Amino acid sequence: MAKSQIKKNAAKKGMNIILPGYTNELNGTEIYQSNRVTTAKIKGLTNIQSKIFFSIIHNLQEPIRMSMSGTDYTQLQLFANDGETINIGIRLSDIAQPAQYAEVVEQAQGLMNLRVNMKSPKGEEYISIASLINRIEKPKKVDGKAVLYLRMDKDVANKLIIIDRNTLGKPVNYTKYLLEVALKARSKYTSRLYPLIASWKQKGGFRIRLEELRQIVGVEPNEYSEYAQFKRRVLLPVQKELEDRADCWFNCSARDFEIRDGKKVTTLNFKVIVPAMQEALKRQADMIKALLKNHFDFQDGHFKAIDPLFSRNFNHDRAENFMSKILSLSDYINRLKGTDDQVNDRASYALKSIINHFQDEINKL
User: Fold this and answer.
1) S-S: 265 plus which of 36, 149, 227, 245, CB 3.0-4.6 Å?
2) Residue 229 CB neighbours (<10 A)
3) pLDDT band at 362, cuts 50/70/90?
4) pTM, whole model, 2 decimals?
């Protein structure tokens, strides 16, 4: 089987995920970019403009990968002219339907006045790109496809291209994500948040100040000022969209997701979920259910009473808590055998004990 055909079924029914490290020409194109680009603060970016931006990054993949390996990418044909700009062509069909092409061209013009703030390669301070592109040419037909050409200053391109490398010459501080997830995003917030989530897949999660996250996803200072609004209008829709179609996602309803200073949410604790993690959790849930059935005689009615504990926000902490409770219940019931307090209805007794044990969590589900 060819690598491009290798897929993995995710926990969500009907969803296919490309295995990490493999590329599928139709729906699994791996994109690399500097973490400085991933965490850039860009105000007023529309969903279409986000997709134009991702298409630009896609067109810069050859020099980006050369930067990762320490090769001089300025020798590429893209940089061959003696002028101060490079010419980037993006296929309009990658971004929109033909009826929307005029809107894409109009939105691209807005990128000429778009300010991008990125962390400096030399420290935590931010550098500012005053204009992402400086000229737009009318779309042309190339191999039967409408292509929009954008002129970008070479200095701006360099800021988007350069990937840090460590003392051993290995690339560091970069993000890898699937282009198609970004291009097909329905929400502009998904377009901005997905690469950030993907950048932490290997480490499993990250914490970020709420105010910084708001700036990264492009929320205006007076927009969704209450956290409850931000969660409802930004986080939950992005979570749902990533669960349905991405190679990684998060759960903003997890118990430890919100970190507060008093009553105010100030920091968010993202735990990045990938299909392999979901499969491991399913195996743990199945094991717990098997133990309840085999050792406590659980039937369908018993399982139905605690189904929310398995179907909502099930995670490793709850799985371990479950296993600990099951072991202590089994030990307790066995010690009562042959005494006046012997447990005759193991299933009912265990069910009541489990519900009492998880009552606080059940109330939140």
Assistant:
1) 227
2) 12
3) confident
4) 0.70
